[in-house]
Amino acid sequence: MWPFHKVFPFFRRFLSSFIKKDQIYIFFTLRSVYYIGFLISLGFISMTFSSSLAYSSTFIFFSFLMISSVKTNYNLYNVSIEKVKQRGFFPEDAPGLEILINNKSKKPKFDLYTNHEDIKSQFFSMKPHSSTVVKVPIKKPPGIHSLKRLTLRTTFPFELMHSWKVFLFEEICLIIFPKKINHLPHLRPLEEEDSFDKNNNNSKKGAGEDFHSHFPYSEGDALRYIDWKIYAREKGTFIKTYESSNKTAFCIQDTHLQEFDKRDLPQESKDEQVAFWLSQALKENRQFSLKLPGLHLNNGNSQKDLESFLFQYLKWRGL
């Protein structure tokens, strides 16, 4: 294929200024350059020797090139990108784009592919009036990246011409979180150690995990928590109590991250540690908070909170 990806960035931006919505563009591939060179040589031979066979061959090969151009161009007619969605945010989840492509034409389409920057999807074909979802991996470092355009391409049927169609977006955000790596296994950013409350506070009335003891009934206690077996034996009115463990929250502060400065570790390691601690808190069913200079996020307890915290952290880091 003609190496457009090697052009200078400023020249690429200049060409991008001429892009129009739903416009199909077409140009020669590298293979077609050789093919045109062959046609010129054949035409020169036909004019030099006045050979009818050479004239006929030139006409046939030239017609073949024109037909290929029409087919390549029409292969993108009424094909459009309808929706773009990101799947996966952590590098361990192999993040990628899911692109919904719709063929509104009455004709089938062959050997299409789409690309995001230098990453291409697999080739795919489409039946008339059909849709398909194409996946493109995202190969970017941790941070918040913008997606402003995607391109549909084809070289069908003979790879002599390259046709493409550009789709512009209102700046879709691509989010890549840091890897979850524990660089400080000796340190856990707990607000306080797990413990049972003292003076019978380690037990709670009503349903729980493990039975602890009985507690005398007092006015206001729910009747459903009364131990009716003891009451039937006329030994008093008691409420069942159960042991409960109060898990303390993960509270990530600047003092925890200063360990990296002492060890002269890069900022990337800090990002990975923050991602690990937040993920570990969610795995252990703990609340989590971020209290850094200029960034205060409190009481997270779900996957949605985890993603929101990391998104705000990346913005705070300027990534």
Task: Give short descriptive properties of this protein.
single chain, alpha+beta, 319 residues, 6-stranded antiparallel beta sheet, 30% helix, 3-stranded antiparallel beta sheet, 15 strands
The averaged pLDDT comes out at 81
Query: What low-confidence regions span 5 or more consecutive residues with pLDDT below 50?
Result: 193-206
Q: Can you count the beta strands?
A: 15
> Percentage of helical residues?
25-40%
Number of domains: 3
User: Shape, please?
Assistant: elongated
Spatial extent as radius of gyration: 33 Å
**Sequence of secondary-structure elements:** HEHHEEEEEEEEEEHEEHHEEH
Tell me the β content: 25-35%
Structure description:
With 319 residues, the protein is an alpha+beta fold. It has 3 domains: 21-176; 203-243, no CATH class; 250-317, no CATH class. Helices cover 30% and strands 32% of the residues. The chain is built from 7 helices and 15 strands. Strands 1, 4, 5, 6, 8 and 9 form a 6-stranded antiparallel β-sheet that branches. The relative contact order is 0.10. The model is unreliable at 193-206 (pLDDT under 50).
Concise overview:
With 319 residues, the chain is an alpha+beta fold. The chain has seven helices and 15 strands.
SSE topology:
Elements: H1 9-16, E1 24-28, H2 30-49, H3 52-74, E2 79-87, E3 96-103, E4 109-116, E5 119-120, E6 124-126, E7 130-137, E8 143-154, E9 161-176, E10 203-205, E11 210-216, H4 228-232, E12 238-243, E13 250-253, H5 254-262, H6 267-283, E14 288-292, E15 295-300, H7 303-317
Parallel strand pairs: 13-14
Antiparallel strand pairs: 1-9, 2-3, 3-7, 4-5, 4-6, 4-8, 8-9, 10-12, 11-12, 14-15
Helix pairs in contact: 2-3
